[in-house]
Amino acid sequence: MSHWPLTPDDISRPAYRSLAQAIAAAISAGSLRAGDRLPTHRKLAWDLDVSVQTVSRAYEELIRADLVAGEVGRGTFVNSLPPETLETPWHSGMARLPRHDLSLLTPVALPRAKQAWIESLHRLADHADHSALHELRPELTAARYLDIATDWLARCGLVVGGRRVLITNGVTPAMFVALSSVLTAGDMIAAEPLTTHTLIQAARHLNLQVQGIECDARGMIPEALKDAAETSAGQMKAVFLMPSGAAPNPQIMDKERREALAEAALEAGLILLESDPLGPLPARRPPPVASFAPRQAFYFTGLTKCLAPGLRLGFLVMPEGLFEHATNRHLSISWMATPLIAEIARDWIDNGKADKILADHRVELAARNRLAQSILGPRCQGGLHTLHRWLSLPPDMDEDSFMARALEQDVAVAAGSGFAVSDQSPAVRVSLGAGSRRDLERALRALAEVVPEF
């Protein structure tokens, strides 16, 4: 519901949560606007036939979500929402892009990938199935490319049937479909304290709360997840994980921790949302967390980060009972995956190009990660086949100062605070894919000069 005012028919049990979600939805839809005053606790309780305590608890939830503010003696008012912008956080306020842009996560521009684009486009121009390229029926497009989806998912360690797979235009649309399929305004998601900026933005758009869960060197702590779910009194509905090297702190979670987290989510009644943009790029990684809890897990991966930025195709795996629900969400957001991109993906996968590009990418990333480690030292964390390193800064150095000094050296990096859902020590994300290896070395050496202690 997104209307205002509400009626008693809009309230279900538990009443406080239903009321909070209804008000959040009305704010999102614009039925309630910034500065609008909400009814007093007593008046709204009377209008909706609920207790004053129910209204008070709902207002407290909305205040915690930063959707409203209570002013003593005046009442409760809808907050001004942050202005939406198409500008990425790490380029905010930047007058020009620097020569060395290590802020954006991108795969290496490989010669083999360039040649694969040329060959596939020529082949499709001569031999494309034009019925596929002119197709507007999502179910037919999905059926046509289901085999490459399941083939790729098997490379990622997940063997699934067709009734659980949805093909999307990348990982971000897949994530948005998953979130909107199982969560409603006011719900809470558990996540690592450092997570993808796209989750933070999507949660803000959907009026969801994100709570950081304590981690150790192996990743999210299962006991901390269960404790947080219990403390939330049912408000926490899902847990979002990035266990395979794509999170800001790019570690690869071990199999035992993955199994333990799946079990913790099952015990707490949480839906698992596993984001895996790198897919099979990190070699010899454990199976996805979703493989240990298939009946209540969403898993999404894609081709953009591990093969080529222009190959925007994603694969969403979901619990079988939610297939129709998620498919309808996808129809309203994207309608269907783009057939031309899917045709190119099929050509790469069927002809073995994808596997050769993956192999080349691993070799180049291994060299770049070793280079970054040797130049930036032990503060620089990452894996052998990850696309970035996480660079911890000295406690007395703030991120803005570091980034400003890096820009003076013509190098851009991403502020760690843009990925934080709770207070974190200062850090920056350093992406390794852009430019040549020689250019990367120049940029890394310039960063090392910014903090001489390295």
CATH topology of the largest domain: Aspartate Aminotransferase, domain 2
What is the name of the CATH architecture of the largest domain? 3-Layer(aba) Sandwich
Overall body shape = globular
Low-pLDDT residue intervals, each spanning 5 or more residues: 82-87
Oligomeric composition of the shown chains = single chain
Largest sheet: 7 strands, mixed
So, the CATH homologous superfamily of the largest domain? Answer: Type I PLP-dependent aspartate aminotransferase-like (Major domain)
Q: Distance N terminus to C terminus?
A: 54 Å
Taking all residues together, what is the mean pLDDT?
91
Number of helices: 15
Number of domains: 3
The share of residues in extended strands comes to 5-15%
What does this structure look like?
The structure is a single chain. The protein is an alpha/beta fold and 454 residues long. The chain has 15 helices and 18 strands. The protein has three domains: 71 residues, Arc Repressor Mutant, subunit A; 114 residues, Aspartate Aminotransferase, domain 1; 215 residues, Aspartate Aminotransferase, domain 2 (3-Layer(aba) Sandwich), CATH 3.40.640.10. The strands form five sheets. It has a seven-stranded mixed beta sheet, sandwiched between helices. Strand 10, helix 10 and strand 11 form a beta-alpha-beta unit. It starts with 14 loop residues before the first helix and ends with a helix.
Structure, briefly:
By secondary structure, the protein is an alpha/beta fold. It folds into three domains: 8-78, Arc Repressor Mutant, subunit A (Orthogonal Bundle); 90-106 and 354-450, Aspartate Aminotransferase, domain 1 (Alpha-Beta Complex), CATH 3.90.1150; 135-349, 3-Layer(aba) Sandwich (Aspartate Aminotransferase, domain 2). It has helices spanning 15-29, 41-48, 52-64, 111-127, 130-133, 138-155, 171-182, 197-205, 222-231, 255-268, 323-333, 339-350, 353-376, 399-408, 437-450; strands spanning 37-38, 68-71, 75-78, 100-101, 165-168, 188-191, 209-212, 215-216, 219-220, 236-241, 271-276, 297-302, 314-317, 380-381, 388-392, 411-412, 414-415, 427-431.
